[in-house]
Every structure is written in structure tokens, then in C-alpha cells.
Design goal:
binds zinc ion, two-stranded antiparallel ribbon
Length: 114
């Protein structure tokens, strides 16, 4: 075995040790990071949910049917004074069968709801 072989062997040993150590460290760090990432991801998800809800809420914002201005709460448009119907689908009780539907017709018996 020549000198260079021995040096090479020693180096290999050292390198392997270092590499193994680095791998261990790397795994530890990866685990830490994974935990962090999960937490961050969770937070991001929460934020996105919040934002989507906010967006949905603003998409569903009431608008004046006359001038198109957004009217969040007032029963009358501050721009043109048009009366704005309450938010959401209007639920009506069927006069025939008594079930509540949000459409124009009773979903149970087909009676026209006024
Ligand atoms: Zn208006
Ligand atoms: Zn009905």
C-alpha cells in the first residue's frame, strides 16, 4: 500500500465521517424544517382561507341594482336612493306543503312561491 493510498484511505474515512455527520445534521435540520414548514403551511392555508372568505364576502357584496354602487349595509343606496333588497336568497315558505325553499318554486311540491 503506497503513501497516497493511505492518505486516500484516511481522507475517505474523514470524508465519510464528515459526510455522515453532515447527513445526520441535515436530517435533524430537515426534521426541524419540516416541522416549521408544516406550521408555516398551516398558517399560509389559514391566511388563504381568510382571504378567500373575505373575497367571497366582497363578491357577495350587495350592489345597488340601479347604479351598481356597492352598498354594504344600508337599506338604501347612498348614491341614488334605490332600495336594496336584503342579502342572500330569500327563503319562502310554501303555502301548499309548508316547506321552505329559496327558489321561485317549492322544491318539494312545485308550488309557485311569491
Ligand atoms: Zn344606486
Ligand atoms: Zn310545497
Amino acid at each position: 500500500m503506497g503513501l497516497f493510498d493511505r492518505i486516500g484511505e484516511k481522507l475517505n474515512e474523514k470524508v465519510r465521517e464528515t459526510v455522515e455527520q453532515k447527513i445526520d445534521e441535515g436530517i435533524d435540520r430537515a426534521v426541524d424544517k419540516a416541522t416549521d414548514t408544516d406550521a408555516i403551511e398551516e398558517r399560509i392555508q389559514e391566511r388563504m382561507d381568510e382571504r378567500r372568505e373575505a373575497k367571497e364576502a366582497s363578491d357577495a357584496a350587495r350592489r345597488c341594482p340601479n347604479c351598481g354602487k356597492e352598498v354594504p349595509e344600508d337599506p338604501f343606496c347612498p348614491e341614488c336612493g334605490t332600495r336594496i333588497e336584503p342579502e342572500g336568497p330569500v327563503e319562502r315558505k310554501c303555502p301548499n306543503c309548508g316547506s321552505v325553499s329559496s327558489g321561485k318554486f317549492c322544491s318539494k311540491c312545485g308550488t309557485k312561491l311569491e
